[in-house]
From TrEMBL:
GO terms for molecular function: DNA binding. CDD domains: HTH_LacI, PBP1_LacI-like. It comes from the Bacteria. Residues 6-60 form the HTH lacI-type domain. This is LacI family DNA-binding transcriptional regulator. InterPro entries: Cro/C1-type_HTH, HTH_LacI, LacI/GalR-like_sensor, Lambda_DNA-bd_dom_sf, Peripla_BP_I. Residues 7-50 form the HTH cro/C1-type domain. The keyword Transcription regulation applies. The keyword Transcription regulation applies. It comes from Paraburkholderia caribensis. SUPFAM superfamilies: lambda repressor-like DNA-binding domains, Periplasmic binding protein-like I. Keywords: DNA-binding, Repressor, Transcription, Transcription regulation. The lineage of its organism: Bacteria, Pseudomonadati, Pseudomonadota, Betaproteobacteria, Burkholderiales.
Length: 332
């Protein structure tokens, strides 16, 4: 027969203290004498007592859980990011609870459900520029961080790579490789990463006295990259380089150029990506890209999430240029 797990009441009885003292000791909230603390510690060790996280959450009003909200769970950049976030949360004594807003749902649609769980904080890994999900968290007193995104109209913290700077690096890299007619293939036009990467790329070309490049925006997928590269080259046959809003688009563009049009990469058309997805490192693609500093971004996000009483902050962390064979060897 399985032995009944000891309760806070049992600990209090054998330690000779009040149950309220045990509760304060476990939650870390409230004063407790050193004598009572030593008694409780001794009994907990002898009884092999483990606090009930549900009961502790009910008493404190918050569970030791951080919600991670996303809408693009199929994006290959996110699984390793989620794994690292989960590992870092556990080091802080916190657990992750994943919410995926499947189309046509948005972050705003799922946020009321998220907050029903009385989570300690929320990390939004995907958010449109119009998202008000972060506002709802702030109104409920729940810390929120937008990760790899930010909202121009919402509240809360945000952590992202310096995507404008990355776009500027992409422009310099392609021009240094000999490109004279670059173009841009964007992802979702409503997402801040796409807007900033496009803005940085366009502004840097303008500074170099070049006309605004041909461009198309739609979604962050391989299929879109495959299609868009062929569409743009059909309209502008003199295009000699593509800056792509992420590596999935870049991989699709490479295959569209090679197999759809019979051209060579990088001899005929250079390709530049973003993020350093796993696909960027594959031998079939070897994409020159901007590597997102994931570890630094996660550390900054968790710092902001657990910071007491801090005003909204936006952290921008520089990305790293990684040169591979989708651009000529003289790139950089």
């Amino acid at each position: 027969m399985k032995r009944k797990a000891p309760t806070q009441k049992d600990v209090a009885k054998f330690a000779g203290v009040s149950q309220a003292a045990v509760s304060r000791f476990i939650s870390g909230n409230g004063a407790i004498s050193n004598e009572a603390r030593e008694k409780i510690l001794k009994v907990i060790e002898l009884m092999d007592y483990e606090p009930d996280p549900v009961a502790r959450g009910l008493s404190s009003g918050r569970f030791d859980v951080v919600a991670i909200v996303m809408t693009d769970i199929t994006n290959p950049w996110y699984p390793p990011v989620l794994d690292l976030i989960t590992r870092e949360l556990r080091k802080l004594g916190l657990q992750a609870l994943l919410f995926n807003a499947s189309a046509p749902e948005t972050v705003d649609d799922v946020m009321p459900l998220v907050l029903q769980y009385r989570v300690r904080g929320v990390i939004i890994t995907t958010a449109s520029l119009q998202s008000s999900g972060a506002d709802l968290c702030v109104k409920r007193g729940v810390p929120v961080v937008m990760f790899n995104r930010y909202s121009q109209v919402g509240a809360g913290h945000s952590v992202s790579t310096d995507n404008v700077g990355g776009g500027r690096i992409a422009a310099d890299c392609l021009l240094a490789s000999g490109s004279r007619k670059p173009a841009f293939i964007g992802g979702n036009p409503a997402v801040s990463t796409n807007r900033d990467r496009r803005s940085g790329f366009f502004s840097r070309l303008a500074e170099r006295d070049m006309l605004a490049p041909p461009s198309l925006d739609k979604e962050y997928t391989y299929a879109w990259g495959y299609e868009a590269a062929q569409l743009l080259l059909a309209r502008h046959p003199d295009i000699d380089a593509f800056c792509c809003a992420d590596d999935e688009i870049a991989a699709g563009a490479i295959d569209g150029i090679r197999f759809g049009l019979g051209l060579r990469v990088p001899e005929d058309v250079r390709i530049f990506g973003f993020d350093d997805h796993p696909v960027a490192r594959q031998a079939a693609y070897e994409i020159t890209t901007i590597r997102q500093p994931v570890a630094q971004m996660i550390a900054a996000a968790l710092e902001l999430l657990t910071k007491e009483g801090s005003s909204d902050e936006r952290r921008l962390i520089p990305g790293e240029l990684v040169i591979r064979s989708s651009t000529p060897s003289n790139t950089g």
